[in-house]
Amino acid sequence: MYSWVQGFLHGTVTCLPSDFPRYPGAVYADQTYELNGAYPGNTCHVVLESNDDVATVTAFYESKLNTGAWQVTSSGTQSGQVTFQPARSDAPFGTVQVGVSSTHTEITIDTFTSTCLPLNFPNYPGAKFGGMAKETAARNECHVVLVTNDGVVAVTAFYKSQLNTGRWQVTSSAGNQVGWRLTNGKRTDASGTVAITVSDDRTEIDVAAYS
Length: 211
Description:
Layout: H1 2-10, E1 27-35, E2 42-50, H2 54-64, E3 70-76, E4 81-86, E5 93-101, E6 104-112, E7 128-136, E8 140-148, H3 152-162, E9 168-174, E10 177-184, E11 187-199, E12 202-210
Antiparallel strand pairs: 1-2, 2-6, 3-4, 4-5, 5-6, 7-8, 8-12, 9-10, 10-11, 11-12
């Protein structure tokens, strides 16, 4: 146990999956692991440093995370961000962000086993992870992006139906945006919107939740 802790502190052991690709020659900079912290489930945050340029590092992850056990769900070489998930399961999913920091290229890897959306929030069948952000200020704000090859009409119809059953309630519906709330008796535990749009050649599902 002592050797594992020391390995974690010095980067010889990371919280990333054992088969997660590591950029050749990259040097460990930092990592944190949380269980039910800012996000539900397990979260892993690893920072690596490289002397190679952003485009080269990004291209490496675009390639290595789109073979074998992994699949790329969205990427942008110019933005230096790659989102991914396992090829045969839903989690862990996450992002690789590549950027310039002082005199080196910084590789920031975040993996998650759950989104910050309310428990049992309807997930469009077959939709892939496209990004996530959470803010805690006056209230908790969660933003999750999913992507699918299905059309806007089908996706919109799914959420209009699924968010109007059980404790879920549709509060508004205009075009391809659905407003919703999660009820608990007369109380509202969470509320938000689902916006469905076409992005490039895919349908993007942008879910916002507030609690």
